[in-house]
Amino acid sequence: MGDPTATIADRLAVHDVLVRYVWAIDDKDWDALDDVFTPDATLDYTSSGGVAGTFPEVKAWLAKMLAAFPVTQHLLGNVDVRVDGDTATARAAFFNPMGAATRAGPLHHFFLGGRYDDELVRTPAGWRIARRVETQLWFEGTLPDELILPD
Question: Which of 53, 77, 81, 113 could cross-link 57 (Cys pair, CB 3.0–4.6 Å)?
Fold first, then answer.
């Protein structure tokens, strides 16, 4: 059956990785993602019009694309963590209000929701996501006609 205290500690540590991800994204702290993903992780954001690729490729894409959205607020819920030795799976629902920068003036707001499906591994530095698939389930509002992407 295993040590229930260790299992609880692992589940909390995995949950903390998911929370570190949303804070890194919302703070635009791209280097903090190095403490979320393995260096060889694969990520898939294609359901929301994004890219799929290796962690370094997607990290660079996130930094470029999310620069157009000075306001994001990723909220996680219904987090389900399953630990099996040195591997784990996690799924979490997300709600994400966003504000897009436009030349028209005030931020253009819209909302989206979906889920993250993750495979994690225990590393010497702690738990890290080795594979993530984001699935956008709904979108409310519209994207602005013109996004401002900083140089």
Answer: 53
* Inter-residue contact 112 to 139 (CB < 8 Å): yes
> Can you give the pTM of this predicted structure?
0.92
Please give the Cα distance from 22 to 31 (Å, whole number). 13
pLDDT digits (tens, 9 = 90+) for 59-69: 999 999 999 89
Token readout for 32 is: 């903090």
**Domains in the chain, CATH or no CATH each:** 4-140 (3.10.450.50)
**Dist. CA 101–CA 145, nearest whole Å:** 11
Neighbour count for residue 147 (Cβ, 10 Å): 15
Q: Which pair of tokens denotes residue 129?
A: 């996501």
CA 53, CA 63: separation in Å to the nearest integer? 14
At 92, is the secondary structure helix, strand, or coil? strand
